[in-house]
Structure formats: structure tokens, C-alpha cells
């Protein structure tokens, strides 16, 4: 990456490798709630930019940037380059803390002119990303004091936004958009300068804590996150590194929107709630921390659609696609307060309810969410199915910028096998699978709530949907299922990864599963680094496209889980190995949002604007592990099923502190030769059933 990021809660910063926020068009800045509170933070030493030595963000919560001086003159003496060390360390704990450490390695004293150029523009992130244009009617104000600057802006949404910059020690000079220090460092002497930058939305003072104390609090919060989650150890160090990185990234991506931790979609441009992304991430990471599912469900239920509002694709019972908090959303320039244009978030919401209940036996949450559950079911049948054919469709909203309303949401993703882009209304394959699984999984749970008639209705509807799907989506000539049905109910016969999601949902007929699996792992679909989104043999294929031939880790994790659920453990292990092989090519073993779909022999090719870290990519290893273990939890019946099948170079998995309701489970899986054994590491009242 050519940029650095730090995020905590709803605040994040994007800078260049020097740690500078340059006032150009790259989107650098300090952001919170979709507004840029700082668009300039440039450090110079004696009027020159420092030299970059290294920039690290391995710990996620802190940037540590090592710099050095350019050559300069001090008291008539030349100071050679790289003889003064400059270290910038920054983190966020309610505000941005930055420490600049200066070390004089010369045998004589030097005088340094340390200067920060600062600025604020309060642009909306959707404006910066060119989603829509915004006219800012008010000017940015500036208040100067001896040791601080305050920028302010009164938005057209009547919210006053402020950026407070405090300095320690007191600088020599503070003037418009400039903070200046003159520092004399004796031979071998070190000095420190601190900046405390607070993005403020409300009239409340945020306490500036001691730098070291604030950093220690942040470290402890990461340690607590790790303790609260399941402890996982394997004998494969690469897999361990991937799990460690994913755990860190998921912690970083959490933010609270009123109901507890919610995984935002990705850094830097999607630090906000997305319905689909949050739901899939929570489903993937159940093995790590089931509590995230609970707060995710509550957050989404809080904003469930209430009325028919075409301006933001809202309908009663619908789960939103994207929620923004900036000036553009607040004033209706964009429809994101929230925007509901997605066909799949509503059934995914129901699937997460069911999985959370099976893993926790928390019937009280299901009761709490029962009105939202019923509204979501009503949406599927009355609004999702636009023409009464039994399938959920979406219709494009190009005036709102959303022509495709499923996870492959680029404008050109819905293609026929001959390359032509299809027109909506569109019934996409995986969405039907999600609806099937939602109804099938909810039916037995609702029966426990004395919703017997609704339970039987859902079971019947699920079976009817499965039969209807088989009749309309199966392509006899291609021996595969259609990507979608277009506005004329003609099938899109492209070979795509979407059908792997249909394995995960269980809507694929048992007698077709082998053909589907074989097709997904064939050379035109499997890149060697994971399954492509589209076959190389289709006319629409492009390995550097967003959705027509690239590889998405989360997509593959759902496919792997689907393969394992149908009993195809060999294929599941193959794709798991491919993703593990891919992870070694990325910094810190961090799987990105996506990468290009070239063959493995050509090496990993980055997708140029992939989010990293990104939530459902970070959660991918946990769903892979769930599949490897064949872990299926039914806590209401006090049963845990295990069917482990281990991929290459992985012979031992140790799980401790797996939280299942009020109980915890510790167990170990070991493979010797062809035999796999499971042993409990602590007493348990659960019935463990090993296949």
C-alpha cells in the first residue's frame, strides 16, 4: 500500500508513508463519521521533507514511522543527512495522539526548525470518492491560541464540526495553518513533541490523557479482545499467522453504532455499517466470538425499513445496505441515511439469527427480535418477490448509483456467458439460496416460540423454493446453475462463483452437488490462489475486474463451507490450501478484500484499490477453520458435531475457550497418518458427536 492507516472506533487517519496528510486529491485525512476533519498535516525539518527509513503498522493500533533529516546547515556547520533521527508514533483513543521523537546522533549540537502545516476542509467522504457532488455553503473558521488551534465548520445539516489541535510543549509560533518549533539538541540529545488532535461533533470536551496512559489503555483493549475470543493453535505456523492477523484486523474494524460492536466493512473508504458485509462477517467469525452476531443483529434491527420510500429503496422489513453519517447523507444529497438497496441483507439477517441461536441457545434475543424477524420474512414474500414467481428480485436504481444490488455490486457483474450485460429486474442465484436457508433454519426455532403455523409455513415454502430453483436455474447444457434470471426470466449462463454460495445455503440438489463442486475446482475457475468469480472460458472474464474473474477470500470461504456441508472435504481442503498459499504473499499475512484472478504461475497480482484490512476477508480464516473441523453446533439440544478433515501441512488443531452459551468447550484434533482423533481438554456437559 502507498498509504498508512490507523483506526479506532469511528475515527481513522489515512496518510502517506511519511505520516503526512497531503492536501491533494488522494483522500488523505483524519476522518470520523464520514467527514474529513483534517486535510493537511505535513511535517518538515528545516524547511525540508524528512527521508523515509521505514513505516510499520503491524500492530494495527499504532503507526511507527522512522525518518531522518535531509542535509542542512546549523550555526554555520553542515549537518549531514541521516544524522538526526525522527520517529513519528500515532494512535487513536477517542482522539489522535502523535509523538515526534527527535534524536541527534551528531557529536555537536544542532538547531532544528520543526514545522507542521495543518488544515481542515470538512469534506464528506462520499464527495471525496466522487459518489456525488456537494456544495459547501459555509467557510471553515480558525481560532488560534498559544498552544492550540481550533478549526470549525457549520454544516448545512446544522451540525458544528470542530478540529482541535493541542501541542506539547508550547510551540514557538502558531499562526494560520502552521505550528512551528525551534529546538536545540545537544550532542546525542533527544527531545519529544506531542500533538493531540480531536475531531469533535458535539459540544463536549474529550479528555486529553497522558500519551503513555492512553496508549496503555488501547493495548489493554486489544488484549481483552483476544482473551474474550476463542484461543486457536495449530501446528502450521502460516495458518497461525493468518489467524493472528485476522483477529487483530477484526478488532480494529469494530465500531459501536448504538448497540455494541459492529464490524465496519473496510479501511479506508468503508468505515461505516454495511448490512451485507456486517452479517456475513458475523456469520464467518462465530467460532471466534458469537457476541458480535448479537450486537450486529441489534444494530441492523434498529434501522430496519419502515415504509415504502423509493428515494432510498426502503421497504417495510428490509435490512439496509449502507448507513452514512456525513453532511451529504444528513441533507439528502445522497440516500445513505440509511440506503436500503440490497436484495440479500434481509435473508442474511435471518440466517444470522438462526446460527446465533444454535450456537448460544439465547432464546431471549430471538424473542426480542421476533417483530424484526416477522417483518423480514414479510419483506421476502411481499416486496423481495416483485412478480410472484417465488424468487427475490432487485430492480436497478441507476439514479442512486446502485444498478446491481447483490454482493457482486459492480455495474457489469451480471453478464450472460456471451458477455452481454443483463437487465433487471434480476433474480440472482445466491439470494434465492439465502432465502431458502433463512426459512429452513428459522422454522424449528419459531416452533419453540409457539409460532407453529408460521414454522410449518416456512418449512413448506423452503421446499417449494428449492424445487422452483432447481426447475428454473439448472442449465442442462452447461451442467451448472445459472448466475441469475434476467428481466425476461432468461437464465444468465455464465459460470460463476455465486453457485458456491448456493452450496453453502443448501439449495443445491444432492444429485447435482458433485457436478457443481467439480466445476468450481476446474482449472478455468480455480486460479491456484482460490476460486475466481467468473470462469476464464466466459466472454465477460477479466482477471483484473472487480467481479468478473478476480478472487475474493470471503467468497471462497462460503464456497469451502458449502463444499464441506455436502461432504466434499477434498475439494474444500484444496481451496483452503490455495487461500493459505495466497496469504503468504501479502504483508503481515493479511488477506485483502480481493486480488486479481491470474493463474498461480504468474504470482499474486494485487487489485489496485482493494480495502485492507477488510472485514469479511479478515473473518475468512475462521469460517475455513469451522469447515475444516466440520463444526456444527446445536446448543438448544446440547449437541456439538465434529467431522474434522485436515488439509495439507495441518495435523494438529487446539481449540480453547470456545464459547457456546454459558458453556465453554476445549478440544484438540490430531491427525496421525490417515487417522484423525478428537480429544476433550476439559470436562464438558455437552454431548460431542464425532462423525
UniProtKB/TrEMBL annotation:
GO process annotations (BP): carbohydrate metabolic process
Sequence ranges assigned to domain Putative glycogen debranching enzyme N-terminal in this UniProt record: 6-195
Record keywords: Coiled coil
A Pfam family assignment: MGH1-like_GH
Domain Mannosylglycerate hydrolase MGH1-like glycoside hydrolase: 282-585
Keyword Lipid metabolism: no
Coiled-coil blocks: 201-228
Gene3D superfamilies attached to this UniProt entry: 1.50.10.10
Protein's name in the database: Glycogen debranching enzyme
Species this chain originates from: Halobacteroides halobius (strain ATCC 35273 / DSM 5150 / MD-1)
Amino acid at each position: 500500500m502507498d498509504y498508512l492507516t490507523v483506526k479506532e472506533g469511528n475515527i481513522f487517519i489515512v496518510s502517506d508513508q511519511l505520516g503526512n496528510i497531503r492536501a491533494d486529491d488522494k483522500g488523505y485525512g483524519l476522518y470520523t463519521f464520514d467527514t474529513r476533519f483534517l486535510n493537511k498535516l505535513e511535517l518538515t525539518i528545516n524547511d525540508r521533507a524528512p527521508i523515509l527509513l521505514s513505516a510499520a503498522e503491524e500492530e494495527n493500533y499504532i503507526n511507527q514511522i522512522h525518518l531522518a533529516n535531509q542535509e542542512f546547515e546549523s550555526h554555520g556547520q553542515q549537518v549531514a543527512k541521516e544524522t538526526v533521527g525522527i520517529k513519528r508514533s500515532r494512535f487513536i483513543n477517542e482522539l489522535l495522539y502523535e509523538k515526534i521523537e527527535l534524536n541527534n546522533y551528531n557529536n555537536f549540537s544542532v538547531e532544528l526548525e520543526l514545522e507542521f502545516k495543518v488544515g481542515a476542509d470538512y469534506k464528506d467522504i462520499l464527495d471525496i470518492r466522487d459518489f456525488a457532488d456537494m456544495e459547501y455553503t459555509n467557510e471553515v473558521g480558525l481560532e488560534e491560541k498559544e498552544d492550540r488551534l481550533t478549526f470549525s465548520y457549520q454544516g448545512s445539516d446544522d451540525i458544528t464540526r470542530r478540529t482541535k489541535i493541542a501541542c506539547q510543549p508550547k510551540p514557538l509560533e502558531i499562526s494560520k495553518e502552521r505550528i512551528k518549533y525551534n529546538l536545540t539538541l545537544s550532542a546525542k540529545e533527544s527531545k519529544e513533541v506531542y500533538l493531540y488532535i480531536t475531531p469533535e461533533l458535539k459540544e463536549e470536551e474529550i479528555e486529553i490523557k497522558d500519551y503513555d496512559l492512553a496508549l496503555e489503555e488501547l493495548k489493554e483493549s486489544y488484549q481483552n479482545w483476544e482473551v474474550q475470543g476463542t484461543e486457536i493453535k495449530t501446528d502450521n505456523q502460516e495458518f497461525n499467522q493468518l489467524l493472528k492477523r485476522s483477529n487483530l484486523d477484526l478488532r480494529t474494524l469494530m465500531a459501536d453504532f448504538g448497540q455494541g460492536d459492529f464490524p465496519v466493512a473496510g479501511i479506508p473508504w468503508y468505515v461505516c455499517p454495511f448490512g451485507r458485509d456486517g452479517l456475513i462477517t458475523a456469520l464467518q467469525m462465530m467460532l471466534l466470538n458469537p457476541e458480535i452476531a448479537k450486537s450486529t443483529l441489534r444494530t441492523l434491527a434498529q434501522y430496519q425499513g419502515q415504509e415504502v420510500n423509493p428515494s432510498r429503496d426502503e421497504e417495510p422489513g428490509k435490512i439496509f445496505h449502507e448507513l452514512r453519517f456525513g453532511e451529504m447523507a444528513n441533507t439528502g444529497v445522497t440516500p445513505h441515511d440509511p440506503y436500503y438497496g440490497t436484495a440479500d441483507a434481509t435473508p442474511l439477517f435471518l440466517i444470522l439469527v438462526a446460527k446465533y441461536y444454535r450456537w448460544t441457545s439465547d432464546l431471549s434475543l430471538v424473542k426480542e427480535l421476533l417483530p424484526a424477524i416477522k417483518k423480514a420474512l414479510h419483506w421476502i414474500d411481499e416486496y423481495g418477490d416483485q412478480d410472484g414467481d417465488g424468487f427475490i428480485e432487485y430492480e436497478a436504481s441507476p439514479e442512486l448509483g446502485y444498478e446491481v444490488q447483490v454482493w457482486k455490486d459492480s455495474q457489469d457483474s451480471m453478464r450472460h456467458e456471451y458477455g452481454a450485460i443483463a437487465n433487471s429486474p434480476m433474480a440472482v442465484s445466491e439470494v434465492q439460496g439465502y432465502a431458502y436457508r433463512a426459512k429452513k433454519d428459522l422454522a424449528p426455532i419459531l416452533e419453540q416460540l409457539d409460532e407453529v403455523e408460521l414454522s410449518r409455513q416456512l418449512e413448506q415454502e423452503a421446499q417449494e423454493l428449492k424445487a422452483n430453483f432447481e426447475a428454473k436455474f439448472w442449465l442442462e447444457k452447461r451442467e451448472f446453475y445459472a448466475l441469475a434470471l434476467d428481466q425476461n426470466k432468461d437464465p444468465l449462463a455464465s459460470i460463476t462463483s455465486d453457485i458456491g454460495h448456493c452450496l453453502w445455503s443448501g439449495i443445491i440438489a444432492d444429485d447435482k452437488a458433485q457436478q457443481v463442486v467439480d466445476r468450481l475446482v476446474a482449472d478455468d475457475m480455480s486460479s491456484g490462489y482460490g476460486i475466481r468469480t467468473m470462469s476464464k472460458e466466459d466472454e465477460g472474464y477479466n482477471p483484473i475486474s472487480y467481479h468478473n474473474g478476480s478472487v475474493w477470500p470471503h467468497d471462497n470461504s462460503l464456497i469451502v463451507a458449502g463444499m464441506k456441508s455436502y461432504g466434499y472435504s477434498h475439494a474444500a481442503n484444496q481451496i483452503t490450501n490455495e487461500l493459505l498459499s495466497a496469504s503468504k504473499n501479502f504483508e503481515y499475512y493479511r488477506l485483502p478484500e480481493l486480488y486479481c484472478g491470474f493463474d498461480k504461475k504468474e504470482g499474486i497480482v494485487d487489485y489496485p484499490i482493494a480495502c485492507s484490512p477488510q472485514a469479511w476477508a479478515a473473518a475468512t480464516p475462521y469460517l475455513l477453520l469451522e469447515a475444516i473441523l466440520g463444526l456444527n453446533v446445536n446448543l438448544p439440544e446440547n449437541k456439538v458435531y465434529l467431522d474434522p478433515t485436515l488439509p495439507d501441512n495441518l495435523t494438529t488443531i487446539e481449540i480453547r475457550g470456545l464459547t457456546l452459551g454459558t458453556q465453554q468447550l476445549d478440544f484438540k484434533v490430531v491427525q496421525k497418518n490417515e487417522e484423525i482423533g478428537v480429544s476433550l481438554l476439559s470436562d464438558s456437559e455437552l454431548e460431542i458427536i464425532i462423525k
